[in-house]
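Repro case for the chain-ordering regression, as requested:
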Amino acid sequence: MASGDRAEAAGRLRHDLGKYIRFSAAETLEADTTVLRERLRADVLATRRTASATQSAAEVFDHWRREAGAHFASGPPAETLARLCGTMDELRRLSAEIDALDRPGLERLDALTRDVARECRALYLEAKS
Amino acid sequence: MKRSGRVLVIDDQPQLAELLGRTAPDLDLIEVREGGGPRRFARSWNEAAPLLEGRRAPEVVVLDVRFDLPDELLLPDLRPLGETAPAKRLRRERRERQGLFILERLRRRRPDLPVLLSTAYEDIAFEEEALRLRADAFTYATPEDESTGAGIVAALRRILAERDVPPRTGRFFWGSSLPMRELRRKVSALAPTPMPLLITGPTGTGKSLLARDVIHPLSGRAGAFVAFDCATVPEGLLQSALFGALRGAFTGAVSDRQGVFEAAADGTLFLDEAENLTPDAQKMLLTALNDGKIRRVGGSAETPHTARVVAASNAELSRAGASDVRFRPDLLMRLNPSLALEIPPLAARRADLPELARATAAAFFGDARHHRAIASLVRAAGGPEPEGSFDLALSEDAASRASSSTVVFVLPRKAWTAMERHPWPGNVRQFEMVVADALAAAVYAGAGASIDRSGRARIALDARMLFDLLAGARAGETAGGQILLDRPRSPSVAEFRRDLERAAMRALFRETGGDFERMAERMTGSRREARAVRLRFNKLGLSARGER
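-- result from build under test --
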């Protein structure tokens, strides 16, 4: 696969997932658990919205992986993608039970969104280099 | 209550608009009704363009940089690109730079509209291009920046707050055009620092007012503001005037004397027309800036100084090989030329003309003598005693829509159009003189006031007089020409000659908007004689400040 295509694909993931998964985050973690839950619900469960559909972070990632994941089978981006897959697995599990999560669970989910944003950025920079 | 602003969000995703709606509910986000709307953000240039003008036009735009859109929505040419390698490259570039393509189109439509660029891509090098296109602010929404939303809202509020700042600080006129907004931000950032500063700009733009009324107060320095005009002091006395002199240092130095550096201790020393500093004075100034020490003429001891230096010039100090400007490059570097506060010519900020006209009129009306004369005109027309503020309307239409002012001065639309097109070589100073002259003519030699049906007094400005003033200002630009003078009546031939010369000097001063270089050019054919012209001007008992 041409490196240009890989960069294009990584750019798309960073835009659709990495940018928006923490877009509503405040400078400091919300003290009010209800507010924190609402923010995570918006960022993680309605990460990408178009006129016709709303996709969660997991759906955005899965869709992207089906389309472009094969292009990241080797080299440094492969390791980063593997790490991102692991992060996304845990995020998927926690976000499925977001209404039942206690404060530590929500804080863990918040930390995962930060990891996803960083890993998307790392993948993009590696694919571009 | 502070008014909120109309904001147009241009982004391919809704999150930014939603964030603003949630965290800054007072903002009025403009709705888009096309393409499956209503939505509170525009996804593309096509959706944003129709919203830029009209009654509900935005006061600020928040613009994303990277857009993930189908080809047919991506500028520059809105057409499918195909799947070849070059087409893919082009698509990526268009997506990554879409915000800049949109900003470029937006600037053609609305050159002065404030724009905040927001991006999550710190690796896309857009800043240089964005500066060229005069974006007002950038925010970076990166994973390292945990204040994405808060940062955007804060930047947006900062831009909106600039709408509400007064058009003047002291006597310095800002206006709200884009170059002046940029200058204001730069001044706010640099004035409180101890760094020496350089102010550049053509004559009449207000360099000394900027230093005195804005930079010195913002500096927070307890000492005095001391202005020193490098062009009016004879070369031989320049160093002693700057740095002081010891008794006996030269003929006439009968006692120790402090220079302006010492007079400006803990304050601001403003060196106007710095290009006129002699090479020796430049060398001593460089030492003063580098080492923080000065030495009086005739002395050997160096003493520390605490003055902050602000230099101003209307010449291009860095112009290589310029025969009429001999400025040391090392001194120029010390004055931070890359941070120079450049005041643009009035012709480059025409958006400010209406505000400047009204501000000039307000200053005129604020003069008690003029106020009394206007009141007497209104009474003579059978009107009531005028109360409150007066107004200047820039056309008949505007006069009928004018505010609740009891007295409205009306400028004919055609005259205003001519003023808008005028080159204004003498810049703000010349514009203010023309407006003040036209108002004075209407008050003291005009046709008087009339009272309209609502009981408001209207005083018309004479269009012919305004065109005369503009023609005079334009004629000042052409070489040669005649000077029409009132013939003085003087007690002796010597006095007559002196009065005639004074009148000629004043006429030239007004024609050139107070630019001594152009006066010199008009008189001798060369701008190099500007210093001699200025000295003669002062010797005749005239003062630039008094004539302005």
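Ordering looks correct now. DSSP finds five helices and two strands in chain A.
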